[in-house]
Amino acid sequence: MILRLFAALALSLAMAGPGTSQDADAPIQQLLQEHSEIIQSSSRRTIQPAIDAIRDSGLGEAQLVLEKWAAREMWLDEATGLFVYAEEVNRDTLRIFDFATGEAIGEVPDETYDQIKPNSGIRGLIGSALVKFQLSDPDPENRLAALTALERNGNESHLPVLRDSIADEPDAAIKARKERIERLLTISYGATAEERIEAISAFEGDLGVDARAALNPLVATTRRAATELPENMNIARVLRVGRDLEPEEAYDLLVAADLAPERLTRDAQRQALQANIIEGKVGGVPVSALFDPTVRDTAYAALVDAGLAEAAATEADVDQSIADHVFFETYAERDEAVTTAAQEALNAIELKVGMNQFFDLSLDALSLASIYFLAAIGLAITFGVMGVINMAHGEFIMMGAYTGYVIQQVIPNYTVSILVAIPVAFAVTFAAGVAMERLVIRWLYSRPLETLLATFGISIALQQIAKNVFGTQARPLTSPGWLDGAWIMNDVVSISYIRIAIFVLALIFLAFFLFLMKKTRLGLETRAVTQNPKMAASMGINPDRVNMLTFGLGSGIAGIAGVAIGLYAKVTSELGSDYIVQSFMTVVVGGVGNIWGTLLGATMIGFLQKGIEWLNPSNTLAAQTYMIVFIIIFIQFRPRGIIALKGRAAGD
């Protein structure tokens, strides 16, 4: 202990030497001394004048003081009452610095200094005060951080500070953001109604969530009740009982405003009457007469007069009280011109939001249509061209997705693995399709029922094989990093990059299929076999070979669709069954055997499904049901689809 005291004494003597004294007459120190008492008390209710005085002092050291204070690095010398900031050297020693010069004063024992510990509320106030300095900070990141803080917790005191910083802002993007926040703060804290209305008008049709967040409080209403309409309130509308609000709600407003007593419920009245039966009477009324509601009210009133029950309103009292009062809604904003401008701006915003929501819904529908098109384009070949009802088509999609998963286990680079997976998935499912056609389908041509049953059995077998090989747990097919995120057009419209990639892939396959059918020998032979297989055979075309390649091509395209779908859907053995129904509907609605019909069918079903889901978002199953019912009705009027095809596939 003696050694410790000696060390402290030696340290104090060392600090008393030249160059280690603190400037007590410095302006910043004088300012701190002026507010020393409330700084030490650290009360959120009383601290604001000290914070404002430091912030508005114009002293170069003001920012340093506020930063150290908020960081709990400000200390008070108990002997001299001067403020310093410090860093801990060790458990018992501080290295202290002068606020005026920023120079180190020396090292002292912490027992001679008192740490200023602002609570979270005071630190929040200090943080708000620091915005003034951060808005003009040379570092753009600090200015952006200050603007983010203003967006979250901006108040009236920030408005003049923000305005002062706009003119000298060198960065155009930051300046535009400052101007936007300035208008948002002006809406709530502008000095005059004209100033606020001008700021409100600037946001007409603006899609930003922050604009709606600033405008909505201006038109927020509160329901009130009074004996007559007040003249000093901004009344939104007068409410009529029975039309705008129920009588129960109206009376609750009267009770909340202390304009009427609590309602007397039948149970409470009955219990009070039963508890005060004396010699067959209640409040002087015979029990035998209490069957009449009016008599019961009279008996209860007698109990109230005698102090045996609490005063409460009867049904008649409730009706009379409602009739004697008016009910209305008032704006929180008192200026009528401001609320009118805010409502007009919100109406313009609502109209533009609705238009953008429709555009966003259309993008979602196009995205879904591209997925259905990819899933159905292979089926359009096998079913539309060949007339084969392939219930295992969904499993080829599943095989393609699992092929992509296996490739990613071998090639960890997601971009390279996806580029490799697309041709490999085509090759795998093409081979599987050729094998299926050679072993099963070729023996069942012109026998649709047997084909359906056989392919359905193959579908079940392929699902079980997938479960045995990969298990029942969903496997990840990870998209490349450059496909993460979404293209955000505004606060309403956005679309994920994966959906965009699938849409582009669908367009590529549309072009590929058109080229294949119009410009290649296989396409020519396929079209010939489709129109008249016997005549095609007589011209030297082998229909069996064309059917094999066509079926393999349709299966291979399904495999590629599986890779694309697996990028955003769960890769499981049931993946294909989720798309087989939509694929058949797409082909049938569009027109059997026509690629343009398939495209139109996919677009129609995509828009239809998204539209139904928008109207009934809480019930996806109902949306699917409505869509199927609509398709059934559509087929009654267009049995051959949107674009009918002549030839074998059309039944001619």
Give an overview in words:
- There is one protein chain.
- The protein is α+β, with helices and mostly antiparallel strands and 652 residues long.
- The chain has helices at residues 2-15, 27-34, 36-41, 48-55, 62-70, 120-134, 140-153, 158-166, 172-189, 193-201, 209-219, 247-256, 266-275, 293-305, 315-323, 336-385, 393-410, 414-439, 448-470, 497-519, 521-531, 533-538, 543-566, 577-590, 595-615, 620-637, and strands at 74-77, 83-88, 93-97, 104-109, 113-115, 221-226, 235-239, 281-282, 285-286, 326-331, 486-488, 494-496.
- Strands 4-3-2-1-5 form a 5-stranded antiparallel β-sheet.
- Helix 5 packs antiparallel against helix 6 and helix 17 (393-410) packs across helix 23 (543-566).
- The chain is extended.
